[in-house]
Model the fold of this input.
Amino acid sequence: MHNLIIPLAGLGSRFLKQGFKIPKHLLFAENKQCIDWSMQSIELRDFNIIFILREDQINNFQYDEILRNKYGKDIKIVKVKELTRGAVESCLSAKKYINNDFPLSVFTVDVAFEPKYSKKTIPKNCDGFLLTFNANSTNYSYAKINQKGYVEKTAEKKIISNDALVGIYHFKHGKTFVKFAEEMISSNILSNNEFFIAPMYNLLIQENLKIKSKMVEKMHLFGTPEELSFFKNNSIRTFNKKIIGLCSDHSGFELKTEFKNFLDKKKVKYIDFGCYTSKSCDYDDYVKIACNGYKEKNIDSVFSFCRSGQGVNIAANKNYKEIISSLIYNYNSLELSIRHNCSNFFSFPSFLWKKKDFNKILEIYQNTTFDGGRHQNRISKIFD
Done:
């Protein structure tokens, strides 16, 4: 048996300050609640799942029943009477289930990542294990990894490396977590007045226990109102690409027409926002219509065409805050514009691209998603 604790007893103070009334994990992003986005990162059948909830969450929102309806009647719900002093203290409320030799993982949610976390993810011959992603923000916890691949130090809200922690914390034995969690609390090892799990690993390392790590491939953050807004308005659109918007000026009209014919054969839905003839026109007029279609959520992205690609690219980026336009000059630029830039507007030079390229363009577009992580932080700065 492998236990997985998911502590949900936090207050979510940043959401409360912005007027949100319900627990942040029950907020929706598209057609799923945040807890669902997080839990799809876990191979659920591999774990015995234990949720930690506050009594007021149960009394006011029937949070326990919501979780049972989602994840089955066999999950365990542990109630705490009031706000705890952090995830370590919350997890200790499940001591009767985890103070044993069975493996234990803790997932602090607020994120979605790929690939899924399963028993197979965890390396052999280690006493603890952490998932990481590349970042350089003081919003996260970090691990410093030595040349042999072992974690030699962890820190909360302090950059000691580029290896930020995803929020998956593994212990070879549940009783190991209990031992060091109680030591942490008795020694009053606080970070920002809370008992965080990440710094607890320093206690394990001091006793020569071996901690390994592995970097995830994709990482999406929604633990703050700003992160959730970005996730909803940008990241998710790279997951579910249903309808493409098209626009061009006169010099891109022919290539756009050929691309429409290609999409028809592939049975891919699109909306053509113009232009509709090869008569001379101004690209900004049609870029504006296409961008409005994106803002109104009629489409998931825009493919635009003009002679150099520069005109439609500049028009989109200059005038529309919601738009992230990229000039697409080869296949690699298309892939990276999605993976690293979360682009939603793709500007194709009509002099460069041919009909023979359409299959590869569509394949890359449909099979590439935003990597998130450090790229989410960088793109968010543009919107600030």
